[in-house]
Every structure is written in C-alpha cells, then in structure tokens.
C-alpha cells in the first residue's frame, strides 16, 4: 500500500507481516436488530385503511396531545412498571 503525505516522501506499508503476527485488528461485528415475537405479532396486526385514516385524523386534530390521553398513557406505564 502506498501512502502519500504532505511531504514529498512516499511511505510504503507492507501488511503481510502484520497479518502473519495477528496484529491487524479483527473487524467488529456489524450492528444488528432483534425483534421479539411480541413485536412480530404486533407488526402482523391488520390495520384497515379506515383504521389508519382514523389514527391520522386523531393525530392531525391533536387528540393525543390532551391531558386525558397523557394520563391514560401514564397510568398504563405505571401499571407495567409495578408488575
């Protein structure tokens, strides 16, 4: 491999010795994602176009930005945490 730096000198690197000695770092595993069975089941839920329209309309009307909805969500979270 040839590396050209800011100077006029050329640096040559020979990785064959490093490979034989095992000094070249091994590649780390790539990122991955694991989806639970519950998540897979939820993904299979049948959302009809009518149900999707209802959800979109609620979002547009700020239905979910109300204290009543926040309280219901908070109660469900607390119930899950206390199990």
What is the strand and helix layout of this fold?
Elements (H helix, E strand, L loop, with lengths): L1 E3 L5 E3 L2 H7 L15 H7 L5 H12 L6 H15 L2
Account of the protein in words:
The protein is 49% helix and 7% strand. It is mainly α and 83 residues long. The protein has one domain. Strands 1-2 form a two-stranded antiparallel ribbon. β1 and β2 form a beta hairpin.
State the main characteristics:
single chain; 83 residues; mainly alpha; two-stranded antiparallel ribbon; 4 helices; 2 strands
Q: Element order, helices and strands?
A: EEHHHH
Kindly state the mean pLDDT as a whole number? 79
Strands ordered across the widest β-sheet: 1-2
Shape: elongated
Q: How many β strands by DSSP? A: 2
How would you summarize this macromolecular structure in one to three sentences?
The protein is mostly helical and 83 residues long.
